[in-house]
Amino acid sequence: MSLVLRKYVPQTIVSIIIVLTVVFYYFYVSKEIAGTFTTADKALSDWVVIIMSFALIVGGIDILRFHLARIRREGMGQAPFSTVTIALLVLMVVFALHGWYLSYADPAAGIAITTQPQFRWLYLNVYAPADAAVYSILVFYIASASYRAFRVRNPMALLLLITALIVVFGNTTIGGLIWPGFLPLRDWIMTVPNTAAFRPITIGAGLGVIILGLRLLTWREISWMGRRE
Amino acid sequence: MSEMSALSSLEKILGSKELLYTLLLLSVILPILHPLGIPVEISRRTIDVYEYIETNLRPGCRVYIEVYYEVAARGELEPNLIALTKHLFDRGCRIVYGSLSAFGVIAFSLFKSMAADVLEGKEYGRDYVYLGYIAGGEAATASLARSIKGTISVDNYGNRLEDLPLMKEVDKATDFDLVVIVSSGTDIFAYYVRQWHTPYGVPLLFACLSVIAPSIEPFVGAKQAVGMLVGQRSAAEYEVLVGRLGLGIASMDAQSTSHMLIVAFIVIGNAIYWRRRISSKRGGSR
C-alpha cells in the first residue's frame, strides 16, 4: 500500500497530466471539442498557478526549518547568517500581514501586500543597492578576464577576438565614429552566425524536454520524487 | 634580456587589477559627469521596431507589456521600457502591464516614478493597468493567454479587474495587438513564444539585456517576434527616435569609454604577448 501511495499514484497523476497537456495543446477534433479542451486546459493552468502560490509558502516554511536545524546543529558559528535570514523572513511575513490588513482597513489608500510602504522601503534601500552593486561588480571581473583570456594563441582565437571587437565597436558610439560599418556588421553577426549557432542549441534543448517528458510518461524518470534511478 | 624584463614589468603593471579597476571606474564616472556627446547612429533593427509600431498600431490599440526584470538590470531595461511606453502612448495605445516575476512589482513602481512625464495625463484603469505579480511561470503565461480575469481577479493595487474600464475590453491573448516582453531572464521569451504567439499568433516584441540577446535571436530570425531591442544601445537609439532623451542616451558615453578601455587593454595585452613570443623564438634560434 505504501509503495502504491508513494510511487504509483504520483507517477500515474504525472502521466495523466502529461497526456492531457499534449492533447489540449496539439489536438484539434472539432470546434466544440476545442472549446472543451480550452476550458479544461485553462483549469489545468490555473491549478499550477494556485499550487505554485502555495509552494511559495511551503518554501518559506522550509527555509525556516532548514536554518533552525542548522543553528541547532552547527552552533553559534552559523548563527549570525541564519538569524539574519530568519529575521528577514519573519519581517516579510509581518509586512505582508500589515499590507493585507491595510488593504481591508483602508481600501481607498490603495495599499496591498506588494505595495506595503515598509516593504518598499526595505526593498529600495537594502535589497536594490546590494543587487545593483553585485551586478555592477561583474564589469570589473569581465574587464580583468578579457585582458587575460583574449590572447591570440591560434587562428581560432584570432577569429573570436575579431568577432568580439566588431560586436564591442558596434555596441558603442565611438565605434560608429571609427567606421560606420561596425553597426551593420554587428547586426549581421547577431542575425546570421549567432543564430546559426544558437538555433541547434534551442532545438537540442527542445528535444531534451521531449525526451524528459517521455521518460516521465514511461516512469523511467523518478528523480522528481527525490529518488535516484 | 633587458627587453624581456621591460616587457615583464609592463605586463605586471598592466596586469594589476588595481590599475584596471581604477581606470574602469574613471571611464564610467567621468563621461556621466561630463558627457562627451558622441552622436548615436540608429541601427536598422531599432528602426524596424519603430516602424512596426508606427505602421501597425492604430489609436485605440491594446498592448500587453511583461515587466520581468530586477533592479540590477534596471539600467539597461528601464530606458527601453520608458521609450517604448512613450511611443505606444503617442500612437494612442492602451497598455496592460503584468509581471511573472516578484521583482516586477518594484521594477514597475520605479518605472512609474521615472516615467512620470510619460504617464502624465494618462488615467489608471482607462489608459493603463498594472496586474502585479502573477505566480506560476509558464503555466501562468498559458492561463493569462486564455483569460486574464479567469487567472487573477484584482490588480496590483487591489482593484477588481471587472471595475477597470480597460479590463472590460481585454481578457485574452487575441485581444491584444502587440505583446512586449521586457525581461532580464531568458526563459520568459520562450514562454510567450510557446503560449501566446504559437497558438494565437499574437505579435511579440522583445526588449532584453545585451548578454541575453544571442540566445533569443533565433526567435526573431524565425519571425516569432517582430523585433528586438537590445540593451543600453537600443534604448539610446529608441530615445532618439521617440524624442525623449533619458538614461539610455545619458549612459552611452560611459558604455563607449569603458568598452574602449577594455579593448585597449586587450590590444596591449596581445602586443606584449606577441613581442615576448617573438623574442623568445629569436632567443631560441640563436
Question: Can you tag this structure with a few keywords?
Answer:
heterodimer; A: 229 residues; mainly alpha; 8 helices; B: 286 residues; alpha/beta; Rossmann fold; 2 domains; six-stranded parallel beta sheet; 14 helices; 6 strands; elongated
Task: Briefly say what this structure is.
The complex is a heterodimer of chains A (229) and B (286). Chain A has helices at residues 2-26, 31-74, 79-105, 117-149, 155-171, 173-178, 182-191, 193-217. Chain A has 229 residues and is an all-alpha fold.
Please explain how this structure is put together.
The complex is a heterodimer of chains A (229) and B (286). Chain A has 229 residues and is mainly alpha-helical. Chain A has a domain at 150-219. Helices cover 82% and strands 0% of the residues of chain A. Chain A has eight helices and no strands. Chain A has helices at residues 2-26, 31-74, 79-105, 117-149, 155-171, 173-178, 182-191, 193-217. Chain A starts with a helix and ends in a 12-residue tail after the last helix. Chain B is α/β, with parallel strands linked by helices. Chain B has two domains: 2-34 and 253-285; 44-250, 3-Layer(aba) Sandwich (Rossmann fold). Chain B has 14 helices and six strands. Chain B has helices at residues 2-15, 17-33, 44-56, 74-90, 104-114, 116-119, 137-146, 148-151, 165-169, 187-200, 213-221, 231-242, 247-250, 252-285, and strands spanning 62-68, 94-99, 128-133, 178-183, 204-208, 227-230. In chain B, strands 3-2-1-4-5-6 form a six-stranded parallel beta sheet, sandwiched between helices. In chain B, helix 2 (17-33) packs antiparallel against helix 14 (252-285), helix 4 (74-90) packs parallel to helix 12 (231-242) and helix 7 (137-146) packs parallel to helix 10 (187-200). The longest helix of chain B is centred in the last third of the chain and has 34 residues, at 252-285. The model of chain B has no long low-confidence stretch (mean pLDDT 91). At the A-B interface, helix 2, helix 4, helix 5, helix 6 and helix 7 of A face helix 2, helix 5, helix 7, helix 11 and helix 12 of B.
